[in-house]
UniProtKB/TrEMBL annotation:
Protein name: Adenine deaminase
Catalytic residues (UniProt): 192
Keyword Zinc recorded: yes
Binding site residues for substrate: 271
GO MF annotations, alphabetized: adenine deaminase activity; zinc ion binding
Length: 330
């Protein structure tokens, strides 16, 4: 669907399509433990978040040079633009690369090469959000933040991702405080597989401005009431929830009930190369399967721009919002 939209929950490493993975593997002399792209695609059957993360981290071995990261981001931006994305706030996982000996400068430098040309080349404005891996230590997160200081002119915010259960937000209190002191925006994955209490903790302890996923808030009516009252944006990823078995089927996804409850929901693709669809595909799927009407879809698109970190360019946000309001559904 070409409805203008912002994508606020997108892991750039999760846009690595099998074809590009094999191309980069050949370029870098990396051997993948899959015969070809079909064999790799056949491995995209996940039991839960961890089984996905295992493959997600394994495939990153092909990303080695600045050019690799630039090619990865360029391919994503072209696809996103073709599906109506006007603005993308892109996550990346520095620790997953520095642990393999790929420097932070290589990662940020490569991504930036694609991002700085994106408005002119694809009509997509962008921001970068650096995520800490919550299954790594708080010390490692703090070291990553310090290592990122030379690049903060290109980084808008920090996030928190990877294996959730057993790694509550409070573990990262100090690094999020330090990030705030550096003027960085804050978001965190919470309530994907973890309990509703992690959502509350992300808000109260980490000071996040958006909750990534936040799906399990539905189990706690008081929390839902708070999220509605405070208009906390949730970056939902329904195709991801189905593939990682957080919900049984797309038809059973609570998105319609969450909208009816007044929650400020946005629709996102998370790791589109792995979960079967980019942003426009996600809008198409919820329209088809959940029967969301045009005005609900418009609300989701409007929310995406309202929840985006465009405070430094309100003129651009206003232009995007006007495009949403005048969009004609077919
Ligand atoms: O959906 C996700 N959840 C947590 N960590 C992640 N890293 C990439 N995608 C995800
Ligand atoms: Zn995610």
């Amino acid at each position: 669907m070409s409805l203008p939209k912002a994508e606020l929950h997108l892991h750039i490493e999760g846009t690595l399509e099998p074809e590009l993975a094999f191309e980069l593997a050949a370029r870098n002399g990396v051997t993948l433990p899959y015969a070809d792209t079909d064999a790799l695609r056949a491995a995209y059957r996940f039991e839960d978040l961890q089984s996905f993360l295992n493959l997600y981290y394994e495939l990153m071995a092909v990303l080695r040079t600045e050019q690799d990261f630039a090619d990865l981001a360029h391919a994503y931006l072209a696809r996103a633009a073709a599906q109506g994305v006007r603005h993308a706030e892109i996550f990346f996982d520095p620790q997953a690369h520095t642990a393999r000996g790929v420097g932070l400068g290589t990662v940020v430098g490569g991504l930036w090469r694609a991002l700085e040309r994106s408005r002119a080349e694809h009509g997509v404005s962008t921001r970068l959000i650096m995520c800490f891996l919550r299954d790594e230590s708080a010390e490692s997160a703090m070291a990553t933040l310090r290592a990122a200081e030379p690049y903060l002119d290109r980084i808008t915010g920090v996030g928190l991702d990877s294996a959730e259960v057993g790694h509550p937000p409070a573990k990262f209190r100090e690094v999020f405080d330090a990030a705030a002191a550096l003027g960085l925006r804050r978001v965190a994955h919470a309530g994907e597989e973890g309990p509703p209490a992690y959502i509350t903790e992300a808000l109260d302890v980490l000071g996040v401005e958006r909750v990534d996923h936040g799906l399990r808030c539905t189990e706690d009516p008081d929390l839902v009431a708070r999220l509605v009252r405070e208009r906390v944006p949730l970056t939902l990823c329904p195709l991801s929830n189905v593939r990682l078995r957080t919900v049984d089927t797309l038809a059973a996804h609570p998105l319609p009930a969450m909208l009816d409850a007044g929650l400020m929901c946005t629709l996102n693709s998370d790791d589109p190369a792995y979960f079967g669809g980019y942003a426009g595909d996600t809008f198409d799927a919820v329209r088809r399967t959940l029967g969301l009407g045009d005005e609900r879809l418009r609300e989701l698109a409007r929310n995406s721009f309202l929840a985006s970190f465009l405070e430094d360019d309100e003129e651009l946000r206003a232009r995007y919002l006007a495009e949403v309001e005048s969009y004609e559904f077919r």
